[in-house]
Amino acid sequence: MNRIPQLIKLLVLGALSIFLLSCETVGYYTQAARGQLSIMTGREDIERLLADDTVSAQLKEKLELVLELRQFAETEMQLPVANNYSTFVDVGREHVVWNVFAAPEFSTEAINWCYPIAGCVSYRGYFSENAASNYAQRLSAEGYDVYTGGVDAYSTLGWFDDSLLSTVINRQDYQLAGLIFHELAHQVLYVQGDTTFNESYATAVEREGVRRWLKSKNQEESVTTADAVLSRQQEFVDLVIAWREKFAELYDRDMDTEDMRDQKQDLQQQMRVDYERIKRGWGGYAGYDSWFARSLNNAQLSTVASYNSLVPHFNALMAAVDGDMSAFYQRVKEIAALPPEQREQSLSELCLDC
To answer: pTM for the complete prediction?
Structure first.
């Protein structure tokens, strides 16, 4: 019965898109509505799947874990679980969505697209890889730096009940936990038009949730593994942000276009060399090799900054309230309500060394 009002919401959203031609095309919204509808109609109740003898033991183990994580998210992380992640959907493909990012050739600032619910964000999502690729090619032909990446899960921001997708089911337990905490965090708070704030906040909640969950299960070895992963991730993020600033400095210079292109390529190569330097301390881990094998253009660099640059500030806020999640969410909401410039200033004051 709960699906009926959600289907109505989907129809309303589709009808609304017709009146938003100045923001995006009807065709784009149509594919988005169809994609979301396919997920909603493909839902299978997790409790029923657990009672189904034809379901593999491996899948059942993961589904039982999801129910456990739902409970932890609600009781320990104070996240709005409701009916989220109570259903499973096999989407039948490697990724559920492909996001397209773009930035001018000589700017580190990604371009934004605006939507009725999410507001303005620095990506455009497609439920078809071909559609994403076609749009990316169009932007590239217009002279933009373009980056396209597959996405395995997303939040509907409380507009619909989110489902567990087949694209994430085989992740390690702590990674699956992090994903659920991250996406549910968006349902607590989402600031239209501020991707960096939203994603950094959700990432901070994700990491805190994973640490607490692993410790609650006395999985010290997993805690060590997760900490190592987070440490590598932070080194990667710090590297990208530092080099993004170097690119920004280059673009501020007054020079011939071809000279700037040459220096841009030089910086990209230097960045790869710097990556090899920090990778030597990772004990053979090469998980970011494929990322650095790509062009390292402005659009690609923007994806990392959007998701991580403010995480230390939210970590500082978490520490300031002694890990009290209720107090943390309340303080984040107060900061989110500020005008953009004051919001940035308030976050900066939380972590002077960040």
So the answer is: 0.85
